[in-house]
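To: structure subgroup
Subject: Chain for Friday's discussion

All,

I'm putting the inputs and outputs inline so they're searchable in the archive.
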Amino acid sequence: MSNRTRRQLLFDSYLGLGGIALADLLMAEQARAAAPADPLLPRPQHHAAKAKRCIFLFLEGGVSQMDTFEHKPELTKYAGQQMPKAERTTGEIATFSAAPNRIIPPVSPFRQYGQSGRWVSGLLPEMATVVDDLAFIHGVKVDNNNHGPAVYHTLTGNQFPGSASIGAWVTYGLGSENRDLPGFIVMGDRRGATIGGAGVWGNGFLPAAYQGTLFRNGDTPIVDLHRSASMSDTAQRRELDLLRWMNERHSAERTNTSELDARIASFELAYRMQSKAPELVDLQGESEATKKLYGLDDEVTEPFGRQCLLARRMVERGVRFVKVLHGAGGDRWDDHGNIGERIPVHCREVDKPVAGLLKDLKSRGMLEDTLVVWASEMGRTPFDNNLTTDKPGRDHNQYGLVVWMAGGGVRAGATFGATDDFSVRSAGDEVPLRDVHATLLQLMGLNQNRLTVLHAGRYKKLTDIGGRVIKEVMA
């Protein structure tokens, strides 16, 4: 038995807590000393890779895989009948598939296109023309069957708020090639905000400089871009210099000043953007043929077409990561009812703009080093449990997400994974979402195990416990 007194125990405990506090302070100082003066300076890839920048197309609401890119003849053969219980599933999918339901056939017939013979829905005639440039990953599983957590999981690698987004991770690893524009830009849907809000393009536990910058969809993507008429350039520069001096003096006396450092950098970036950003968002210099390629001559395709065209202009000017959002509020891809009328509208809004983006990048020689990704937060069910309506829809399916990639380092025409006959879940080994994230990082020249940050005593990474790089879709 120990002979230590109560006084000695309290003394040792006090010093132990002090040691923990000291270690935390030393780590903060070390991180501060190691931080680059400009966090967005370009940094080398971990390994040689073709992709230098990424355009991430995110279709919010849960895109129906069997109405876009998965041809399942059984859905037509057994239309209106009870679907067998979904095997190897849990939660809502297992419950709903065992309950009374009816199989819904595809909204539009499928045809094979290109040298790859890829089956594509008749709802996507323009994308069918570029299908040979795409590599598909089928049967991807996300960790939650509800929109909010699934959106977070798809865009941050974690179904709970507070983690760093994919774009933040990429700019943290590679910096930015443009000093006058943000390294990570988000193109919002003009109809409203995405589920999760700014958290799905936030920096999380990474330094604040790596968070995404939201550009609005419309004639004024950037609010307050122009200085007031009463403010001269000289006066503004003096004001910013004074503010920077005060902030840097305040920062030098403290630790854990990531947000203040990011604020200082954002003031300087905003100043430089006043001269560069107006040209970026002004599409008058684009030819009429280019505008038509993206569907800017059609009121249905114009909003998303503008987003995609701006995304091309951004990566052309060295922006590292552009996230393009489609779907908001009642116009999301969340078609629980009346899918026969709703999904043709969604598809028409994006079909020509996405095809136009790929064709434009390819014609300019930019597709070789630009990675383009298409994703949603989940797939849909092949059945409907509401047997009383004549306008059925599809419910959530966390097992059925389809992702495709194109461009830098992708093996065009490749396929990985497959779903069962009813497009419920992977027909073989499960494809967890972290595998997709690991593959995206690998294509961008980033090693998932080297792209880490120490947070709360643990090294965090986008893929959490680690993902399998899907080499089958890589050139």
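Points worth raising on Friday:
The chain has two domains: 1-34, 40-225+273-473.
Residues 30-36 have pLDDT under 50 and may be disordered.

D.
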